[in-house]
Input
Amino acid sequence: MANRQITRRILIGAVITAILLCFFLVRPQDSPNPAIRSSSQVAIPEPAALTNNDVTKGEVVMPKLGNETAKAELGRATWKYFHTMLARYPEEPTTEQQEILRSFIYLFARLYPCGECASHFQGHLTKYPPQVSSRNIASGWGCFIHNEVNAMLKKPEFDCNKIGDFYDCGCAEDEKSDDKKQELQSQNQDPSPE
Output
């Protein structure tokens, strides 16, 4: 009878061991539902080791935009945004600010929602790289590149001397505010000697 109990305990222990081994060692290789996959089964892509040049000078991302009305509306809104951004750019930008604007313009050309337009814009950037050393230079370059696009589209050339009138950056209010601050600061300083 003691032999039977020992045999029975060994058999139960073996079954439990086999179940535990199956549970811990034999798992499905790829569950069809990502929500129930364990972290060891989820393929985590390696981060891309791209240089700044790879990111900014790659191929366009978006497909062709076939709707001509949407393309025209997008173009008008984009030029408004583009010229306003350049008009608000610092007059004396830091090296970092210059690189940010340069990179933005190249990334903008890759991500523009009209792939065909983006490709054309990239061609213009290859021929005429962004000029970002000051507000005036960046704004002038922006107007020049806009006229390059207009010439390609057989549209009239824009008078770059009127860019500030046509694309109002809202800077006048900022300038008034800055003038008032300077005036208040000069009034608060007491020039009288002690």
Remarks:
- Residues 30-42, 190-194 have pLDDT under 50 and may be disordered.
- Residues 2-25 form the longest helix (24 residues).
